[in-house]
Design goal:
304 residues, alpha/beta, 16 helices
Length: 304
Amino acid sequence: MAATLFDPPPGDLAAASGSAPLADRMRPRRLEDVVGQDEVVGDAGFLRRAVAEDRLPSVIFWGPPGCGKTTLARILAAETAAHFLPFSAVTSGIKEVKQVMADAARLRRADGRKTLLFIDEIHRFNRAQQDAFLPYVESGDIVLMGATTENPSFELNAALLSRCRVLALAPLSIECLLDIQRRALADSERGLGNRGAAFTDEALESIAQLASGDARKALNLLESAAGDVTDTAAEVTADRIAEIAQRKVLLYDKAGEEHFNCLPDALAGERFYTPKGEGFEAELSQRLERFRQLRSRAIARRQS
């Protein structure tokens, strides 16, 4: 049965009880606690100013997995008077979309509250489903917050994009991931502070490298390694992390942008080219430039 705006808001019972994964338990609850994304949530960031001035617009968060899209939506809902309703494009159809929109309009007429509608994987909605949001975003009945790993210019209606602000979130840096891990290890209430697990600096850096900018992946690996500890007097080492993780998995999608983003780095490596005398660097540079031109043309064709 689909949730409505008149149902009680979902609580954080799982996170509070400790049964939720570490990545969910350690979600920041205030903008001040967010690590990274300073251009968006820093002291001069757009979202911080929007919340302070109570002028939160509809937003599309675009970024790789684990960069904070869902977390930011939840924080913004908590710091405004809007009713927060999470919605999944994976499990919902046009019928549920129209029902939620009607509920949002009734709620605003009843007590003047706007609805902050968070849609995860918004790029999975087809054009007709996306069009259903337009009049409600236009009238202000809802503040739409969508999260997507795909380029919004390719996957979302131009009419919907014109009513939303697209915020590009970057993968988290190694320093940010180290900070997040140390917070989890020190937090006795929501984190691993009571586990007694100790990690070497090299182990934490290894986890950060393996996570590829994904905080969720880093915390999941940290939790797995902490659960594997049998001797609390011994520190978890980088070698042990390598055994648990087995291998690094790159962010890659065959049909999307990451296909083009990964290839220049791969082409520059010795795996594909081995220096063969003078002129190698110039030849390789020309090939990479040719590839970048082809990539730009491919993106331009998709946008047209």
